[in-house]
Amino acid sequence: MTKILIPSSGPDDWKQFLAKPDLHWATGYSARTLAHAWEAQSGLPPEIAALTDAAFGPGEVLFAVPEHKTPLPGGRRESQSDVFLLVRHSDGLATYTVEGKVDEPFGPTVGEWLMEPSPGKTERLGYICGLLGIEKAPQDVHYQLLHRTAAALIEAHRFDAKLAGMIVHSFSPVNRWRDAFDRFVEVLRGTGCSDGPITVVVPSGKMLMLGWASGAQEFRQK
Questions:
Q1: How far, CA to CA in Å, does 110 sit from each of 4, 114, 137, 184?
Q2: How far apart are the first and last CA of the chain?
Q3: How far apart are CA 79 and CA 60, in angstroms?
Q4: Nearest to residue 12, comparing CAs of 40, 35, 30, 33?
Q5: Going by C-beta distance under 8 Å and a sequence separation of 6 or more, which residues neighbour residue 21?
Q6: Average of pLDDT values for 83-103?
Q7: Domain locations in the chain?
Q8: Across-strand partners of 207?
Q9: Three-state DSSP state, 200
Q10: What is the DSSP string of 115-177?
Q11: 3-class DSSP state of 197
Q12: pLDDT at position 193, please?
């Protein structure tokens, strides 16, 4: 696959990168909603900037990539972030993975994901836990949150960034699945305000930020 990036001319350019464009590109669903929310800004959406600035100081977006794939050990399937960001902050360079949500769940829990175990899954989960500094992933934690956060740290290593972050960009009016995110933060022993950025120092020494951003409802109708 080529590593040449083509600049976007609008939200519809994001559709081509989806795994199932005809299924996932629909009004009211996260992929389309997220594309319109991000394309409406000259920089970061304000709710995202509020989190990143609070965690690491004012930042400049160097680039953003929709549906960016980060390879993981233990299989051929990558972690595909809805948006990948490289941001230069006053505190240093940061890599972010963003997971967009409306009403969609975070997928299977670790316990559900391991119902069909394999050596590859064991290798992958062990690698992710090592990156995040947890001895064992509890069975009730959602696997998607684990590998999406690991992807931010993997990209931080690639870009020689000392900061990283994983942000859930939610457009649910009732913050659906927020309890799953809070449980994930609890497992990582993050510190900070529940309505602001949560920070964790991982084994590599990098500072990891976790955040939940509530997006404007107008973009669900686009």
A1: 35, 6, 7, 11
A2: 31
A3: 25
A4: 35
A5: 15
A6: 96
A7: 55-221
A8: 163, 201
A9: strand
A10: TS--HHHHHHHHHHHHHHT-SS--TTSBHHHHHHHHHHHHHHHHTT-SEEEEEEEE--TT-TT
A11: coil
A12: 73
| 109 or 1, which is more confident | 109
Per DSSP, the three-state class of 53 is helix
Q: Which residues of 49-64 are buried (b: 16+ CB within 10 A; e: fewer)?
A: bbbbbebbeebebeeb
The predicted-structure confidence for 37-81, as pLDDT tens digits, reads as follows 999 998 899 999 999 999 999 999 999 999 999 999 998 899 999
Side chain identity, residue 122:
T
Query: Does 192 score more than 90 pLDDT?
Result: no
Locate 172 and state its tokens.
């649910």
Spatial CA neighbour of 91 closest among 157, 161, 159: 161
**DSSP calls for 54-100:** HHH-SEEEEEEEEEEEE--SSSS--EEEEEEEEEEETTEEEEEEEEE
Question: How much is the pLDDT for 1?
Answer: 58
